[in-house]
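Lecture 7 notes: from sequence to structure.
We start with the chain below.
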Amino acid sequence: MELKEKYKWMKHIDFILIDLFCLIFSFVLAYYLKFENWNFFYDPKWSSLFVMICLMNLIIMFFTNPYSGILKRRYYLQSRREITLFAYQVLSICFLFYVLRIGMNFSREMMLTMYAMYFVTSQPIKYVHKKIITKEIFWRRKNNIVENKDYTELICIDNRTRLQVFLSKFLKRSIDICAGIVGCIILVPLTIIVFVLNRINGEDGPVFYIQDRIGKDGRMFKMFKFRTMSIDADEKLERFLEENEDIRKEFYIYRKIKNDPRVTKLGKILRKTSLDEFPQFINLLMGDMSLVGPRPYLEREKSDMKTYYDIIIQDKPGITGLWQTSGRSDVTFEDRLRLDFEYHTSQSIANDIKILFKTVDNVVNKKGAI
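Predicted structure tokens for the same chain:
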């Protein structure tokens, strides 16, 4: 409930993104029509105005929350809100021009053209989008879980149209590719730092730990992580489980061991900050994983997943997900399965963004990591 209230203004993030896209498109096109080139980013004056307009748009969205209840609101009532929103946006820029005394530095013709195109393009797109996702609401409500007692299996009924599924997958993959590119760029210097620190601490093994995990549709893939344990960690685990009954019980419940003696000094830091997961951006770019999704399970855990298995493997594993934002290492294996199942039955781009925000909050506050 707390998370829902905190990000209430983002409930209809799809409409906000459409609005922002139309605004950016209108600005770029209006600039081209006026100056016959696309190089506004090389002009500090126009690039600053571009950033200012986008920020003002998001600030107005945050405070006015114009899309609250949009899916239930009648068209003429929403039109009133849209006109009010448009007026706020125009007046806010006029106010900034007046306060900063910069109105004479910009083309009024270009600005009028931009806002006219923005209003004309955004309204029909949002209207069509509303019509498309109306059925999705009923899908969410009717997406019931059916238990077949004869075969002891879970059946998830998805009543979304093919267009809805396609648009959702297309947008999700586009976000994954963009995030993967940025993540891999950051990964290069981070890998060098980890490599050097490993050598300083006397760790001569490889920087990456590569492990087989269960992917979408049950296909196995190689998952990358920074190595945080000693090289013979798997052999040590078997010995620990055989020799220690308490550790064996803990591992059976959580599939992890607190105060794991196999973890290196640098590994403890990487795990505490969740940086050990960073190489998974390689899997993200390759298409094996998604930014948000269920946990990537080990092959040996397949039998323990029981009836959840067939549902969970319908989605790509995620770098983060409901499990990571709900306690992570403090959550039992059975609860992880329920959370991943819950993610599958209620997934949407808006929910993914909420999970990403919650993930950042958990990483900053070091919640659930061991």
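Points to note: Confidence is low (pLDDT under 50) at residues 1-7, 136-153. Residues 2-134 form one domain.
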